[in-house]
Amino acid sequence: MEQSFIEARGANVHYGEKQALFDINLDIEEKRVTALIGPSGCGKSTFLRAINRMNDLIPICRFDGSLQIAGQEVYDPAVDVVALRAQVGMVFQKPNPFPKSIFENVAYGLKIHGMTSSKTEMADRVEWSLKSAGLWDEVADRLEQPGNSLSGGQQQRLCIARTVAVEPKVILMDEPCSALDPIATAKVEDLIDSLRKDFTIVIVTHSMQQAARISQRTAFFHLGKLIEVGDTSDVFTNPREEQTQNYITGRIG
Ligand SMILES: Nc1ncnc2c1ncn2[C@@H]1O[C@H](COP(=O)(O)OP(=O)(O)OP(=O)(O)O)[C@@H](O)[C@H]1O
């Protein structure tokens, strides 16, 4: 069988003595949006953060098993974690622009990864990123203003622009709309849909409506186990497992 873009096999995560994920086997397909859903504490964020080794920042956190991206073992000790996180970008729950200008927020990653060779190239790349994030028209005339002078929804799109600037293979999103109002949420959802032609996206969401609107694949977690994964339409209309059925109908969670 052809290998999936991201492949977890027998993945376990512990925080100290406590096991948060149990024997996860999950395939994530390239250039699609995969939603991770499930009740609070089921391990969605832990799995998401395992993909770019963000959990390494938590000293008591331990991963075992296999997690491959494009055939490369993410937990191979030889992996350069900084390079990995450029390849696997992350957008967080609360927009967290750097205390710098709009331009600098996007240019920063390009600079530290040495991805441009001239000022013009940098300016072009920043413009391309802001366009990709659907923000260019709103900020083109105020690139020197601080990133945090934007509205919450614009700040989140700025964070997405910053992430796409370095052209990652994968974008991880941890409840990216939970701090946004419905209009800003709709813009970010449209943006996610347009980004999937170029990027593989994995998103944690508490909103089943959002998962149904924006994802092609859905993985349902419960108590640290992956219960079911499939095409979003199947998982929501015809789930295989009773626990999934109970969650989507509001009986658990
Ligand atoms: N830094 C940490 N230290 C210790 N335990 C943790 C830590 N982060 C998460 N956990 C535990 O791991 C389990 C899974 O948590 P995780 O945040 O992955 O769940 P989640 O499904 O994303 O929850 P939520 O929807 O509430 O964000 C929980 O029992 C949680 O208490």
TrEMBL record:
Keywords: ATP-binding, Hydrolase, Nucleotide-binding, Phosphate transport, Transport. GO terms for cellular component: membrane. Residues 6-248 form the ABC transporter domain. Signal peptide: none annotated. One of its GO terms (biological process) is phosphate ion transmembrane transport. It is an enzyme of class 3 (hydrolase). GO terms for molecular function: ATP binding; ATP hydrolysis activity; phosphate transmembrane transporter activity. Its EC number is 3.6.3.27. It holds the Pfam family ABC_tran. This is Phosphate import ATP-binding protein PstB. The gene is pstB.
